[in-house]
Design goal:
There is one protein chain. The protein has 2 helices and 5 strands; from the N terminus they run ββαββαβ. It is an alpha+beta fold. It has one domain: Alpha-Beta Plaits (2-Layer Sandwich), CATH 3.30.70. The strands form 2 sheets. Strands 1-4-3 form a 3-stranded antiparallel β-sheet. Bound molecules: iron/sulfur cluster (SF4) (2 copies). One iron/sulfur cluster binds next to helix 1 and helix 2. The site of one iron/sulfur cluster (SF4) has 12 residues, from helix 1 and helix 2.
């Protein structure tokens, strides 16, 4: 399993996560060409209070933040 990292540009709030997996789908499709949450560089652990983790491959491109309509991912400094 890939190592995790903490992005400098993204703040997470698992309590707002709805588990929609839009973040994983846009990440995997953009960076691997596959529409598969398992290929994403962001992981939502639905069995562990929606814990949000990023793998070392994350480029901090910000797409997952853009596609999270629930406010669970925010740019650093703009979190509520
Ligand atoms: S910031 Fe970009 S590379 Fe990192 S998890 Fe989000 S979409 Fe994927
Ligand atoms: S972090 Fe946002 S886009 Fe990702 S599963 Fe949670 S609510 Fe959906």
């Amino acid at each position: 399993m890939a190592e995790t990292m903490v992005p400098q540009s993204i703040v997470t709030d698992p309590e707002k996560c709805a588990g929609c997996l839009s973040c994983q789908l846009i990440c995997s499709y953009t960076h691997t060409g596959r529409f598969n949450p398992l290929c994403a560089y962001i992981r939502i652990n639905l069995r562990d209070d929606y814990r949000i983790e990023f793998t070392e491959e994350c480029t901090e491109c910000g797409l997952c933040v853009e596609y999270c309509t629930y406010g669970a991912l925010q740019p650093t400094g703009e979190e509520e």
